[in-house]
Amino acid sequence: MRYARALLKSAQAQKCEDAVYQDMTLLGEAYLKVPQLREAIDNPMLSASDKTKLLTTAMGDKPSPLSQEFVKLVIKEDRESIMQLMAASYVTLYRKDKNIIRGRLITAVPVSDATKARMQKMVETKTQGTVEFESETDESIVGGFILEYDTYRLDCSVKSKLNSILKRLS
User: Fold this and answer.
1) pLDDT in tens, 94-131
2) Residue 25 has pLDDT above 90, yes or no
3) Domains and CATH numbers, the chain
4) Which one, out of 68, 102, 114, 126, has a CA that is 20 to 30 A from the CA of 74?
5) How far apart are CA 131 and CA 67, in angstroms?
6) CB neighbours of 76 closer than 8 A, spacing ≥ 6?
7) Helices and strands (H, E) in the chain, number of each type
8) DSSP string over 107-168
């Protein structure tokens, strides 16, 4: 957490916290999507320069100079084994600082952009913050929707209603 706090303060001082946020978000996603990344970074046989290249590549096409310097510092200090945690901590600190909440809408069928925008606006009104909103389809919910944001979950799916009726009948 110390490294993430220091990175956020440095990014704010250099007015590049948004770019670093994008870099750390991409890096965190890379760790989740490519489990071999952790194995490679934890490999003591891999050189520091190769680890640096690997991590900067995982941050996308053009990582910010501060993100690149941060990776070099982490590797120099032999802390690369917790880089995923540092990236996730930076994302969390950034979101808290900017009052950004993650929201997710799950539906049985794809919904229009207007519907997504209405749901996002509703969540933003309730939370008094900005919402990073994503939507996905899951046919197993049969119909209706599930809305998740912050620590809340509103389940208006047909599947949950049917399960509720089944429990009452049992």
Assistant:
1) 999 999 988 999 999 999 999 999 989 988 998 888 88
2) yes
3) 2-96 (1.10.520), 99-169 (3.40.30)
4) 102
5) 24
6) 48
7) 8, 4
8) ESS---HHHHHHHHHHHHHHHTSEEEEEEEE-GGG-SEEEEEETTEEEEEEHHHHHHHHHHH
What order of strands is seen across the sheet that includes strand 100-107?
130-137, 100-107, 144-149, 152-157
- pTM value is 0.78
Contact 101, 132 (CB under 8 A): yes
> In the Cβ-directed half-sphere of 49, how many Cα atoms lie within 13 Å?
0
Q: Rounded CA gap, 100 and 164, in Å?
A: 33
Q: How far apart are CA 31 and CA 156, in angstroms?
A: 32
